[in-house]
Amino acid sequence: MEAVYVHGIWMAESLQQRTRSHETFWQVVTHMGDPKAAFLLVFPFTYFISRRTGVAVLWIAAISEWLNLVFKWLLFGERPFWWIGESRLFVNNQPKVHQFSSTCETGPGSPSGHAMVTAAVWWVVVSSLGSLMYSRTRSVVVSSAPYLFYVAMLVVVGISRVFILAHFPHQVIAGSITGTFLGIVLSQRAPEGRPLLFFFSFSIGLLLSALILHAGLQQLGIDVSWSIALAKKWCSHSEWIRLDTAPFSSLTRDCGALLGLGLAQYWKPGGWSLPWAPRALSLAISSMGLYHVNRLPLPVRPQGLFYVLFFVKFVIVPQIVMVLVPGLVHLFTHKKKKE
């Protein structure tokens, strides 16, 4: 693997030198590929276009990110920004690379979570759009356009992760392939209309199984938190280390979102039936609501309290999108029509 890592570092150096003028673009792309964006941006956008697709997006985002966490714990993938220093191979020939505010993630590096979750989630979107376009036009060429966009998006997200030194190229490729496979498999199994007990059991099951795996690895003498220490050691700015990039943050986000999805379908089975104009209004209000929920500051000490509140935050996300905002919009537009 050493040769693979070395080539990855030189590729990152070449990429930074050749495209440094596009630094802002790459950072925007890497934020758009963040698994968090699937919950806060892609989910509400798709839900108000197609309820089933929106539910599938949230479901697949949670499952794919959880699986990514498990793979990272088992594969022990390095990240470029700390491997450069830890390997001690570049003492006399330091690569000319730079870190960025989104570089210093604390989880292991393989496979890339950005690539994996993006590939899984956006497969649902582009396959639905491709099917719709084919049913309307009966043109294979026209209906293939979303898939070309899908490939281009995965390439750009992958390049952004290499550019900021968050991943090696092979980790991005592995994440993209795994995510695409998950998207294909899981997109046909969206849990629409399932009882609350299903989501509660699934959420608790994912949480407990991850904790059991974590405890089991520790019992075997494996330090599961090894990557956190390395990230803190080699990150060029300590303030770039954020608790919301830690593995347990991903776990609590996924479990919270799944429980929230179940609660939202329990409170309002079938969702609210809204015409297109109220749907657009609901999307705008929901997006503003999620923006402020995401920006809510959480105490980082004690860490247990942070994870509990992080869990609650993502339980709230589906309530805002599926129940509260469309319910209020329906109430307002219904009253307006009656008047």
UniProtKB/TrEMBL annotation:
Pfam name, any one: PAP2
Main location: endoplasmic reticulum
Pathway: Carbohydrate biosynthesis; gluconeogenesis
Keywords associated with the record: Endoplasmic reticulum, Gluconeogenesis, Hydrolase, Membrane, Transmembrane, Transmembrane helix
Domain annotation Phosphatidic acid phosphatase type 2/haloperoxidase: ranges: 53-187
Gene Ontology annotations for the cellular component aspect, listed alphabetically: endoplasmic reticulum membrane
Domain of life: Eukaryota
SMART domains reported for this sequence: acidPPc (SM00014)
An annotated Gene Ontology molecular function: glucose-6-phosphatase activity
Family membership noted in the UniProt record: Belongs to the glucose-6-phosphatase family.
Gene name tied to this protein: g6pc3
InterPro entries: Glucose-6-phosphatase (IPR016275), PAP2/HPO (IPR000326), PAP2/HPO_sf (IPR036938)
Broad EC category: hydrolase
Residues engaged in binding substrate: 79, 161
Protein name (Swiss-Prot/TrEMBL): Glucose-6-phosphatase
Organism: Betta splendens
Transmembrane segment boundaries: 55-75, 115-135, 147-166, 172-189, 196-217, 305-329
EC number: 3.1.3.9
Membrane topology qualifier: Multi-pass membrane protein
Active site: 114 (proton donor), 167 (nucleophile)
Compartments, as annotated in UniProt: Endoplasmic reticulum membrane
